[in-house]
Each structure stands twice: as structure tokens, then as C-alpha cells.
Specification:
single chain; Heat Shock Protein 90; 2 domains; 5-stranded mixed sheet; 10 helices; 10% strand
Length: 347
């Protein structure tokens, strides 16, 4: 409310100056015979200024005293107060106007009332028009801000929901693998469990974070890869080549690289005779995750959800696209490295 009141007060001053200047120019050009065009223009400006202030005061009082009233009722009360005050104010200042304009005519009460009614009505109507314009602009700005906040809150909720969709399938597979390892190789099971604990600890560190440092994401990927190497041994080959300087300064959505590795393993055959080779590297501001194509004939879970999840999260964080390319031999996905962790990452 306070910013609106300040804008309305400023508008009242501007209206007073503009109308006073217009009255001075009009009387100077048309030589109306007034005693002093300057003093008369001051009277015109003062009338608009005081009327503007009274309308602002009415808005403030009505806002405080009639907080529960409907907008239409508040508006009616404000208009009544404004017009009544304007009529009384013009009646009190009419002798000054007659003196400055050298108006020596004798008015009947009826004629004088009609003249005052016309002048006061025009004056207050102009004030209301300008102030209503300012109020509408203020309400629109307030509405736009509220909508922006709602959109931001919705994006945050969507981002959190998308992140939460990553874990259930992975956790189910990990626990199944852990159970199998403890039956066949306890030492491998313990190593697998150690990496699983590190992975889960990292994933729970900041569940509402919109981005993750590349260093943390790569550490997460290393734990995930160690778990998969225990499972697939030499059938899985993965290389990570990202500049050290980028690890501390760059960011990506949490689990973005890990989910691409998981996607490659899920959709391709992983055997010692035909190893799955995954390469993770940096090039021209993007992280590339590439793998050789040797598609599985059957997939346990519906395909496509991991990439769709990543695409949706990148829409929230950045205008940069997730680029997916495929030929007969290589499947490649590249994501933009985000450099501003505190912002919304939009360019």
C-alpha cells in the first residue's frame, strides 16, 4: 500500500503542475482579462493538488477502516467523499476565483450551484481518472509479481518432484544386487554397500538444491560406477575427462550425468565379449556422455523416462537444450554446464 500512496502523491503534484501551467498558457494566449494569469494558474494547480491529496487520504482511510468491504463498495465511498469535498472546497475558494478573473456578474443561487457543481465535478473526475490509472498499474504490477512468485514456487515443486522420481528404481535395483552379492561374494557385497552408502549420503545432502557442483556430481558418478563395475566387472568401461578447474566452478542438475550413465547401462547389452564403453568429457561449454550402441532386446522398465526427466529439469533451470544425437554406432547426450549457482541459470 505504501508504494501506491507514494505514486499517487507524486501523481497529484504532477497534475497540479500540468494543470496550472495549462491554465497560465490558456489565459495568456486568449487574454481573458484576468487580474493575474499567474495567480489564477496557481489557484487551479492548488485545487488539483489538494483534491488529489484528499482522494489519496480517502483511499488510505477506507483501506484501514473498511478492510472487509467489497472493492465496489470501497470505490463508491471514495467517490462520494471526493465529490462532496471538492464541491465544498470549490464553494470556499469561489470568491478568490471571481476576484482573480474579475468576474462581476451577479449570480443567482441556482446558477452559482450549477457552475460550482460543473467545475467541482470536472476537477474531481480528472483526479479520479489519473489516480485510477495509477491504481490499475499498481494492481497489475502486484499481480504480475504474485504470478511470478507462484511460477517460481511451481517450478521449485516440479524440480523437486522430478528429482524424487530418480531414486525408487535405482534403489530397488541396488538392493536386489546387494542381496545377490551377499549370497555369492561377501567382500564384493561390502564394497558395493560402501559405495551405495556414499551414493545415498550424497543424494540426501541437499534434497531441495536446484543444481550440483560438477565435482559433487562426478564424485556421485564414481560411486555409482564402482557399484556397476562390481556387478559387470570388465564388461563395463567408463572414462571421465573433465578439466579440474571446471569441477569447482561448473554446475549441473543433480543426478544428471549419473542418470545418463544409468540410461546407457539400462538400454544396452553389457557383456565381456562386447563391453559397454561410456565416455564422459567436456567440450565447448557442454558435458558429453557417449556410449557405443548395442541395444538390449528386452528392457525391464519402460524406456525414455530418464531422458524425459532430464529434459524437463533443464527446462526449469536453463534455456539451453539437452542435445541428443545417435548414429549407427554411438549414442550421445550433451548438457550445458551451468555457471551461476545462485541464479535461475537463464541467459
Amino acid at each position: 500500500m505504501r508504494p501506491l500512496v507514494k505514486d499517487l502523491m507524486r501523481t497529484s503534484w504532477i497534475m497540479a503542475l500540468v494543470t496550472g501551467a495549462f491554465a497560465f498558457i490558456f489565459m495568456s494566449i486568449f487574454k481573458t482579462g484576468a487580474r493575474s494569469p499567474a495567480f489564477y494558474s496557481v489557484l487551479v494547480g492548488v485545487r488539483f493538488l489538494i483534491q488529489g491529496f484528499v482522494n489519496v487520504a480517502a483511499i488510505v482511510v477506507i483501506h484501514r477502516r473498511m478492510a472487509e468491504a467489497s472493492p465496489s463498495r470501497k470505490k463508491i465511498v471514495r467517490y462520494i467523499i471526493g465529490y462532496l469535498f471538492c464541491l465544498a472546497f470549490f464553494y470556499l475558494t469561489q470568491p478568490i476565483e471571481q476576484y482573480l478573473t474579475q468576474d462581476k456578474s451577479t449570480w443567482t443561487p441556482g446558477t452559482q450551484f450549477q457552475s460550482l457543481l460543473w467545475q467541482a465535478g470536472l476537477n474531481n473526475t480528472l483526479v479520479i481518472i489519473f489516480q485510477n490509472f495509477m491504481i490499475l498499474r499498481y494492481e497489475k504490477a502486484k499481480s504480475d509479481l504474485e504470478n511470478a512468485r507462484l511460477r517460481a514456487a511451481n517450478l521449485e515443486s516440479t524440480n523437486l518432484l522430478l528429482k524424487q522420481q530418480i531414486h525408487p528404481h535405482f534403489l530397488f535395483n541396488a538392493l536386489s544386487m546387494l542381496k545377490s552379492l551377499y549370497k555369492t561374494d561377501v567382500r564384493a557385497g561390502e564394497a558395493y554397500l560402501s559405495h551405495l552408502v556414499n551414493f545415498l549420503r550424497a543424494s540426501l545432502a541437499d534434497p531441495q538444491s536446484r543444481v550440483s557442483l560438477l565435482r559433487d556430481e562426478i564424485r556421485l558418478c564414481n560411486d555409482y560406477l564402482e557399484m556397476q563395475k562390481i556387478r559387470f566387472e570388465n564388461a563395463l568401461v567408463c572414462t571421465i575427462d573433465i578439466p579440474e578447474a571446471l569441477l569447482s566452478g561448473g554446475s549441473v542438475p543433480p543426478f544428471s550425468i549419473q542418470s545418463l550413465i544409468e540410461n546407457a547401462i539400462k538400454h544396452n547389452e553389457v557383456t565381456e565379449s562386447s563391453p559397454l564403453v561410456i565416455g564422459i568429457f567436456y567440450k565447448e561449454g557442454r558435458i558429453f556422455v557417449e556410449n557405443n550402441i548395442q541395444l538390449r532386446k528386452q528392457i525391464d522398465t519402460p524406456s525414455g523416462k530418464g531422458l524425459i526427466n532430464l529434459l524437463e529439469r533443464y527446462k526449469i533451470l536453463s534455456d539451453e537444450e539437452v542435445i541428443i544425437r545417435q548414429d549407427n554406432k554411438v549414442f550421445s547426450v550433451s548438457i550445458k554446464v551451468l555457471t551461476n549457482e545462485a541464479g535461475d541459470h537463464r541467459r
